[in-house]
Design a protein that fits this description.
The chain has helices at residues 59-67, 82-95, 107-115, 140-145, 176-183, 189-197, 204-208, 234-243, 257-260, 262-273; strands at residues 2-4, 44-48, 72-75, 100-105, 123-129, 156-162, 168-174, 202-203, 221-226, 247-251. It is of the alpha/beta class. The protein has a single domain, classed as Alpha/Beta hydrolase fold, catalytic domain (Rossmann fold). The strands form two sheets. The chain has a seven-stranded mixed β-sheet with strand order 1-10-9-5-4-2-3, with helices on both faces. Helix 1 links the parallel strand 2 (44-48) and strand 3. Helix 1 (59-67) packs across helix 10, helix 2 crosses helix 3 (107-115) and helix 5 (176-183) crosses helix 6 (189-197). It is globular and about 45 Å long. The two termini are 28 Å apart. 51% of the residues are buried. GO terms for molecular function: hydrolase activity. Keywords: Hydrolase, Signal. Residues 45-267 form the AB hydrolase-1 domain.
Length: 277
């Protein structure tokens, strides 16, 4: 693993209608109404998963962070679009008492970049794990297409749907038989099969929707770059990390680094958390 200081085409079919969601969160670790414990002197770590995964993809990271004494929330990501997903995540963050370190994997990076804007007094650090770090006016898809290296467009399986109100859209999956090679090449085969079966689809429109905020411009950022990533090109990750002046670590891992290398992920999150006073 190499640590540094800051200094092709993917075609998705269809478009999905973004769905507005509001969060109802009760007794989260570090939240109002939760039972006080010794962890309250430490920031709460809020984890946001990305596309083709769910909150369970953080399990190994959660275990390590809790063992180190941090309160942790692994939030559910609706995967409908940056604006709506960020509003959902923001409600979770606002429900937590005390300072927060906000962590995003993959598309979750796009979400935390938008959700944390205006919450600088609460969100003290951003951590991007093999993640998008868009500027205003950029989309996840646009950043992927900006550099060669992603093979995601070759293995996606779009599924069209019609809602009761007549609106239409499309969700995007990774074909199960292609999932491990594309997403989780360094995850044991049996585990990767389970991940493929339980993958959460992302709305096609979510990857095309442009960001309206970029919290990494005002909040200190850390980045874990995965050099064997087939979803987000390595060059794109390096470009975004450098532009954000993030404290950057590179690791020889697949896109599913939260599952294959939870120790490395937990370490970089702890580095960010230790800066919070």
């Amino acid at each position: 693993m190499r640590t540094t200081r800051p200094s092709r085409r993917l075609t998705l079919l269809g478009a999905a209608t973004a769905v507005g969601l509001s969060a109802t969160v009760a007794a989260l670790p570090g939240s109002a109404g939760a039972t006080p414990d010794h962890n309250q002197s430490r920031p709460t770590i809020v984890l946001e998963h990305g596309a083709f995964a769910d909150a369970g993809s953080w399990d190994g990271v959660v275990e390590r962070l809790q063992r180190a004494g941090y309160p942790v929330v692994a939030a559910a990501n609706p995967l409908r679009g940056p604006a709506n997903d960020a509003a959902y995540l923001r409600s979770v963050v606002e429900h937590v008492d005390g300072p927060v370190v906000l962590v995003g994997h993959s598309y979750g990076g796009t979400v935390i970049s938008q959700a944390a804007t205006g919450l600088e007094d609460k969100v003290k650090a951003l951590v991007y794990i093999a993640a998008f770090m868009p500027d205003k006016g950029e989309s996840s898809l646009g950043l992927t297409n900006k550099f060669p290296g992603s093979t995601l467009g070759q293995v996606i399986d779009p599924v069209s749907y019609t809602l009761p109100d007549g609106s239409q859209g499309a969700d995007v999956y990774i074909k199960p038989d292609k999932f491990r090679k594309q997403f989780a090449a360094d995850v044991p085969a049996a585990q990767a099969r389970l991940m493929a079966t339980g993958q959460r689809p992302v709305a096609a429109a979510a990857l095309e929707e442009k960001s309206t905020q970029a919290a990494w411009k005002t909040i200190p950022s850390w980045s874990l770059v995965t050099t064997q990533d087939k979803n987000i090109p390595l060059a794109a990750q390096r470009f975004m990390s450098k532009r954000a002046h993030a404290h950057t670590t590179e690791i020889n891992a697949s896109h599913a680094v939260t599952v294959s290398r939870p120790d490395a992920v937990a370490r970089i999150v702890e580095k960010a958390a230790r800066t919070v006073r």
